[in-house]
Amino acid sequence: MAAMKVHGNVFSTATQRVVACLIEKDLDYEFVPVDMRSGEHKKDHFLCFNPFGQVPAFEDGDLKLFESRAITQFIGHVYSGKGTQLIFENPKKMTIMAVWMEVEAHQFDPVASKLGWELAVKPMLGMTTDAAVVEENEVKLAKVLDIYEARLAQNKYMGGDAFTLADLHHLPTVQILMGTQCKKLFDSRPCVSAWCAEILARPSWAKVLAMQANN
């Protein structure tokens, strides 16, 4: 039995982030499905893993973690010798990469998640998309992507010269937005478009999407 466990839902972007990381690192793990429709993530047995009642939760032996980006960083550092090297050993390179992980978490993801909710999730649930929210956040996303375009004109990847967690953390929300009208915002920026095509084509991400398709 795998020592590592991921308690999550395959449709959760945060869960997908952790699973993609584990696959990149070629690590064995057990996936423990959490039934969010029944509110399992708000029940006591799950709250002992994450008191905020959100997926995913992660176990490695006696260590229990929550927050997907913290989990991926733990995996990247502790298992640095396995699979894809998702961090830099050089402190300067690592710090620059950390800057762009922060950018993803605080500049890109809040806007991208709002757009994903309005343009992908709401229609699926039969809810009405709020056009004003979409318009406001498309403007915000365009500004972020202008900065990404400048960054990626100088570097092949967001964190530097290799694929790292700074790129991997983007995968779930980029995947969602590429299936919406926001695709044009990525496609109209050549460096961003090439970066998206490359990271979305990674075999690890194909495996995450296959897990989703089988549920």
UniProtKB/TrEMBL annotation:
Keywords: Transferase
Assigned EC number: 2.5.1.18
Superkingdom assignment: Eukaryota
Catalyzed reaction equations: RX + glutathione = an S-substituted glutathione + a halide anion + H(+)
GO biological process per UniProt: glutathione metabolic process; toxin catabolic process
Record CDD domains: GST_C_Phi, GST_N_Phi
Enzyme class: transferase
Pfam family, one: GST_C
The GST N-terminal domain, residue ranges: 2-83
GO MF annotations in UniProt: glutathione binding; glutathione transferase activity
Domain GST C-terminal: 90-215
Record's GO cellular component terms: cytoplasm
Record-stated family: Belongs to the GST superfamily. Phi family.
Protein's recorded name: glutathione transferase
Protein species of origin: Actinidia rufa
